[in-house]
Amino acid sequence: MTTEQRDLAALRRDYAERAIEVTELTSEPSAQFARWFAETDAVARKSDAAWFEANAMVLTTCDQGAGPSSRTVLLKGYGPEGFTFYTNFASRKGRQIAADPRVALLFPWYPLERQVIVQGRAERVPEWESDAYFASRPRGAQLGAWASEQSQPIPDRAWLERRLAEFSARYPDRVPRPPHWGGLRVVPEAVEFWQGRPDRLHDRVIYRRDAAEESGWSRTRLSP
Fold first, then answer.
1. Residues identified as active-site
2. Which of 104, 109, 201, 212 could form a disulfide bond with 60, CB atoms 3.0-4.6 angstroms apart?
3. Which residues are annotated as a binding site?
4. Which residues of the chain are under the pLDDT cut of 50?
């Protein structure tokens, strides 16, 4: 065993005694997600977990040439219809989603030793929904959406700051939403809830769309 392996082995710890009981889960995943999100957000707001954002999620997209790529984005809405975030449509993730809308989301909720994995298809939200959210953003974030040609190479930081100043002068009052910026909603096909358990015998339950079920979803326990 190398020194690095020994050092990492020393980080091993057991998980708390929490459990998932299938009979206690909701019949469809958005309600169960709402339960877990509320519990996680309550922990995140405590001072000892100030570093943690419950709505931070890892979005994975796929490029036919480069393969999968992941990045952290912020969840801005959720419900039975899906999970919503906002981005520059011309960014790498925006271009990849336009070419292949199949995506995955991962919510790494470390404080409660949980994670939620969503698999589905991303689609644009209605224009009015993007307009409403953009109008709620701070002015600096609104201007940043104009200034940043997201994912494109730039010569230096000064170039970005000049762009910000240019758009600030162009829009001294109301900042309109850029046509290349808006919301994407991930409509789930499968949602897995994972709870860490002692001895690495974790609890995993996956919801899958199933027209034969009254709720439209089946629930299956998976081996860890």
1. 200
2. 104
3. 71-76, 86-87, 92-93, 115, 133, 137, 150-151, 194, 200-202, 204
4. none
The correct CATH number of 24-222 out of 2.30.110.10, 2.60.120.1680, 1.10.357.10, 3.40.50.1400 is: 2.30.110.10
Give residue 18's pLDDT. Answer: 80
Residues 6+ apart with CB under 8 A from 63: 69, 92, 96, 99, 100
What is the C-alpha to C-alpha distance for residues 26 and 15, in angstroms, rounded to an integer?
24
Binding residue positions for FMN: 71-76, 86-87, 92-93, 115, 150-151, 194, 204
- pLDDT at res. 80: 96
| Look-up of token digits 């499968």 | 190
Each domain of the chain, given as residue ranges in start order, spans 24-222
pTM recorded for the entire structure: 0.90
